[in-house]
Write a structure and sequence with these properties.
497 residues; alpha/beta; two-stranded parallel sheet; globular
Length: 497
């Protein structure tokens, strides 16, 4: 039986730890797995972008550009892949077109091959320039459809968006399911419809595992014609993360499809991360499977960060209220998909609404979302909430592409960066400062100290294990039972195993 090759994108080095442990994994905990990842037979290796850039300079004192160069050096045979937020790049606002050009150019120079370009609102206007910038470098431009569910989203709309992305020059189309909302039949229907409308188009499917149904969705997507699917090695999978790579391989055995992945290499990668993951336990989400997400639509990375946010406010017990509030806030905003940055914007506003009263306090970002400064949402926004936003931000709503309102800013950004202590003069440092102006200045001054690992050391884990074993033995004394035999009651002591 001839088998169709199914490509696999391994996400352990980026989205897996972003979703499972708030993006805290240190580079030193990844390097020893890179040789096996490089030779396992993946279609691509996702290792950069998303929240990793922010986490590197905010928490890990690590230069994200150096991380990319290190991955390039350690995985010379792999397509390196990143997640790029269109006109937002990796920050939380829109950047002027020349800045987008510079970022893509520098990312390609430092080793990036595949750019998965998305917009949190699925607004094509926010994708067009970033896609053109990727095409200019000769790298792979992957146009992305953010999958979501609402009264306004349907298969026909997703097919239409795929067409717009292909018109922009997309080399492939990614169906990105960040909240594990893609049910099996919907996966089949969307992939089949895009394949029929645009024959020969490569389709990549990205799912999280939070709702427990999406491994089946990957199978149905493959049956409908999907070419590449995203998974995470099993020791870095499940919960708000992704479906296990090895489970996909086994699922396809005996079918007309094969991944061609090297199982021995996968086992080695699995074993490596099995020793690494316990170091970051304190950052992990408690969520395993939650079908309520079909209502709240909270993606994995947002869930773990929102739980942390509530715990810091002493309100960890109110997560359920926030999850119920998220759909109401989303409706008010015109049903945007929930993916960075819209997920953080909507999620944080939901937290504020629960803790302080509905829209008693509105974040500046949510006000801008309501006023159109992030782009066009699929549906109409709540006019009452628009008025609150207008009064707070002292701005009128807009309907143009947000970046069209921006003045050229590259020279200004460089001039500002040059004033910062520790600035190294590179375009890469200018871009770091531009995307994270509140964090980069401190990072530049501490960078000479080198990266830091926020996970627990091997010694700490061993001490904790010994303490737990000692405590278990102390608790594990003999148990006494009162046993009545022949009318006489006697006490029997039994040692616990």
């Amino acid at each position: 039986m001839s088998q169709r090759q199914i490509g696999v994108t391994e996400v352990a080095l980026r989205d897996a730890h972003q979703s499972l442990m708030a993006t805290r994994m240190a580079m030193e905990d990844m390097v020893d797995a890179c040789a096996d990842i490089d030779s396992a037979g993946y279609w691509s290796v996702e290792c950069w972008g998303g929240a990793t850039f922010d986490a590197c300079i905010r928490f890990l004192n690590e230069d994200p550009w150096r991380r990319l160069r290190t991955f390039r050096e350690l995985m010379p045979n792999s397509r390196l892949q990143m997640l790029l937020r269109g006109q937002n790049l990796l920050g939380y606002r829109h950047y002027e077109d020349m800045v987008v050009d510079k970022f893509v150019e520098k990312s390609a120079e430092n080793g990036m091959d595949v750019f998965r370009v998305f917009d949190a609102l699925n607004d094509p206007r926010n994708l067009e320039h970033a896609m053109a910038a990727v095409k200019k470098t000769g790298k792979h431009a992957q146009g992305t459809i953010c999958y979501t569910i609402s009264p306004l989203h349907d298969t026909e709309g997703y097919v239409k968006l795929a067409g717009r992305l292909l018109d922009m020059g997309a080399d492939s189309i990614a169906l990105k399911d960040m909240a594990a909302l893609l049910k099996p039949q919907a996966a089949y229907d969307v992939v089949k419809a895009v394949k029929e409308a645009y024959p020969g188009t490569q389709i990549n499917v990205h799912c999280h595992s939070t709702t427990g149904v999406t491994l089946v969705s990957l199978m149905k997507a493959i049956e409908a014609g999907a070419d590449v699917v995203d998974t995470a090695i099993s020791s870095m999978s499940l919960g708000p993360g992704h479906n296990p790579t090895e489970a996909l391989v086994e699922m396809l055995e005996g079918t007309e499809y094969t991944t061609g992945l090297d199982k021995a290499k996968l086992h080695s990668i699995r074993d490596h991360f099995a020793t690494v993951r316990p170091k970051y336990k304190e950052f992990e989400s408690a969520t395993l499977i939650d079908t309520d997400i079909f209502d709240s639509q909270i993606p994995g990375g947002m869930l773990s960060n929102m739980e942390s946010q509530l715990r810091n406010q002493g309100a960890g017990d109110r997560i359920r209220e926030v999850m119920e509030e998220v759909p109401r806030v989303r409706k008010d905003a015109g049903y945007p998909p929930l993916v960075t940055p819209s997920s953080q914007i909507v999620g944080t506003q939901a937290v504020f609404n629960v803790l302080m009263g509905r829209y008693k306090v509105m974040t500046g970002e949510f006000a801008d979302l309501m006023l159109g400064y992030y782009g066009e949402c699929p549906g109409e926004r709540n006019p009452e909430v628009i008025e609150v936003a207008r009064n707070q931000n002292k701005k009128d709503p807009i309907t143009v592409r947000p970046a069209d309102l921006l003045e050229p800013e590259w020279d200004k950004l460089r001039a500002e960066a040059e004033k910062l202590p520790g600035f190294d003069g590179s375009d890469e440092d200018v871009l770091s400062a531009a995307m994270f102006p509140g964090v980069a200045p401190k990072f530049f001054t501490t960078r000479p100290e080198g990266p830091k690992n926020v996970g627990k050391t091997t010694e700490q884990l061993e001490r904790e294990k010994k303490a737990a074993d000692a405590n278990s033995k102390a608790v594990r004394g003999p148990i006494s039972y009162n046993v009545t035999i022949g009318g006489r009651t006697q006490t029997v002591k039994v040692e616990q195993a």
